[in-house]
Amino acid sequence: MAVLGKGNAHGACSLLHAAPLGYGANIALDLPITVRLLDRPSKREVKDEDGVLNALLNAWIEAKHPLPEGFEREELHWGVNSKIPKKQGLKSSAATCIAALRALCKATDTHLEPHEMVTLAAQAQTSSKVSLTGSIDDAWACMSPGWKLIDIQAPIAEGVLMDEPGLSAEDWAVLLVLRGPRTYQPTMEDFASQTTAFQQALTALQDGNPLVAMTWNGRGAVAALRDVEGRKMANDSFMNSARAAGISGSGTALVIVVPAQQTPTIKRIKSWYSTRYPKAEIIETSFLSNEIEDELE
After folding, report:
1. pLDDT tens digits for 55-93?
2. Rounded to an integer, what distance in angstroms lies between the CA atom of residue 131 and that of residue 150?
3. Which CATH number fits domain 3-164: 3.40.50.720, 3.30.230.10, 3.30.430.20, 3.40.50.980?
């Protein structure tokens, strides 16, 4: 088995859901994914129930980009190694698209600008019906560290309104409480009545306060999704001294942020959710920040 090309990306969590206001923001998380383009099927089964990878390859071909020399479409296969929980609001589909595009670029010696990659990722996610908005903001977040505020109604090349370095892994711990894949795909109308909370999140981002935005966005999301359990779980985190918390994307994952040095608080929160929600999985991770890169330049 030959690897024709390999690409990496990462997951992210929501600071502002794009559906209600037309502005979206996500912050990068240390949840890596690697996608390989192969000349024969992977020994490890690739679970792509929504057909995102197939839709991405369609988008690539429709854009007149080349296939690897000597290969027809049906001779190409994918291999995926991902640490991103699926269908829980942690941007697994967008990250898959970005990593796969990087693999295709490597395999064909093709250079794409970031906005071109986002365009193809959005096309794939829309055609495979895994996204309400095309997840343009998600794709931007899965490409690089930090966080970006995106105007999803603007031309993609012009849609990045803010591009911030993010939050340091040395300062903040991120706990993910995973409740399993979402069973309900919301509509745009579900979010329409909750614009006040999302507007608060947008204002917080404009003021440079992503953790405040995460909390307000989470409040709007649980109300829009009628997620009673999610609302209670988020409130529980504040009772246990979390600095920020909210449901990510359209659910179901709860993202909790705690100062990294507060080890007793982190242990208490893990114990709290493990005891009260035994079916939930708890993952400790961190933000991906580009502050280190900036310091080296």
Report:
1. 999 999 999 999 999 999 999 999 999 999 999 999 999
2. 16
3. 3.30.230.10
